[in-house]
Amino acid sequence: MSAPLTPPPPPHEHSAPGAGRTTAAPAADVTKPAHTGHTGDGWYGQDGPGMKTELREAAVAAVAVALGGVLLGVLWWWLAPRVPLVGDAVDGNWVVYVKETEGEQAIGVDGTFTLLALALGAVSALAVFLVRRQGGVPLVVALTVGGLLGSVLAWRLGVWLGPTQDVIAEARKVGEGATFDAPMKLGAKGALLAWPLAALVVHLGLTALFGPRDPEPYPPADPHLPQGPYGAPGA
């Protein structure tokens, strides 16, 4: 009689010591969704805090630039030329007129404000760029709005610090024929745009020259690799 045939061992069993026990691999949990990097804050969870940060920084920049109008107003009142006036009493009525009709003091008042506003606009743009080191629409809007508010604040502060607005009362106070200074006056209201325009141009220029560069969409090809027909590395 022939000996009974022994069936071959199953494929998953091993002849190594201790391999008599087979351990099944844990099955993947198909009910648990794969992690996609979504934090539960919505699809704009990554962008939301970034936009809030930009808006907050833009608001701080606008307030800081606008407060710079105090410095502009003081400098304008201090450096601007004075327009001399003279009072004269005619039949009991006081008349005030400019002492030097061909003088250029009035033009100098507007020119001083414009030059100071241009300088402060450039300085404010440089300061914001050094702090932020990049551009952005909220920051540009903040510089423009802050510069305009600073110009208006400087204008009103200079008028308030300057000579009195009641020229008739001042003429009576100094006496007939005496010279006194005219109130601070900004004849060309377009000078109020000098600060925001200077800040906008300087900031855009600094961002274009020294701001962060966008990464190249395609890395440069390695010159040591063979090139394909369209510039791509060949096989």
Describe this structure in words.
With 235 residues, the protein is mainly alpha-helical. It has a domain of 161 residues. Strand 1 and strand 2 form a beta hairpin. The longest helix has 28 residues. The two termini are 66 Å apart.
Any key phrases for this structure?
three-stranded antiparallel sheet; mainly alpha; 235 residues; 6 helices
N- and C-termini, Cα separation: 66 Å
* Number of DSSP E strands: 3
**Residue-averaged pLDDT:** 77
Name the overall outline: elongated
Strand content range: 5-15%
Give me the strand/helix succession: HHEEHHHEH
Pick out the low-confidence regions. Answer: 12-49
Q: Strand pairing plus helix content: what structural class?
A: mainly alpha
Radius of gyration of CA atoms, rounded to a whole number: 38 Å
SS element count, helices: 6
Strand order of the largest sheet: 2-1-3
Percent helix, as a range, is 40-55%
Please give the largest β-sheet: 3 strands, antiparallel
Topology:
Elements lengths: L46 H21 L1 H11 L4 E7 L2 E6 L6 H28 L4 H25 L5 H8 L4 E3 L12 H17 L25
Antiparallel strand pairs: 1-2, 1-3
Helix pairs in contact: 1-4, 2-3, 2-4, 3-4, 3-6, 4-6
Short description:
By secondary structure, the chain is mainly alpha-helical. The protein contains 6 helices and 3 strands, in the order ααββαααβα. 22% of the residues are buried.
